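Supplementary Note 3. Input sequence used for the single-chain structure prediction.
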Amino acid sequence: MCRVFAEQDPEGYRQINRSIRIGGHSTSIQLESTFWTLLDEIADSQGLTTPKFISKLYDEAIEHRGEIPNFASMLRTTCALYLRGSRPLMEEVAALKQEAA
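The predicted structure, written as discrete structure tokens, is reproduced below.
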């Protein structure tokens, strides 16, 4: 059973830094390659670029919670929620795509 996990390609957990503008400020986010791939997929599914998706997610989380103790961890759990099937409704996706156009 553990072979699936133990023998995975190290490329998937290679750390990658990306510079992204959030709230008018440039910041660097370090995540594993697999998470960046998933974030690219999530953003694309909503008709957004990855930086735009991350910025929008940050703004909405701040609006809802007031603070984000660990944004990189939030991005990882966003990917986990996505993989578990927590995806936006089709109406939300259509509205996001229209807004982005």
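The chain has one domain: 3-100. Residues 3 and 16 are 25 Å apart (CA to CA).
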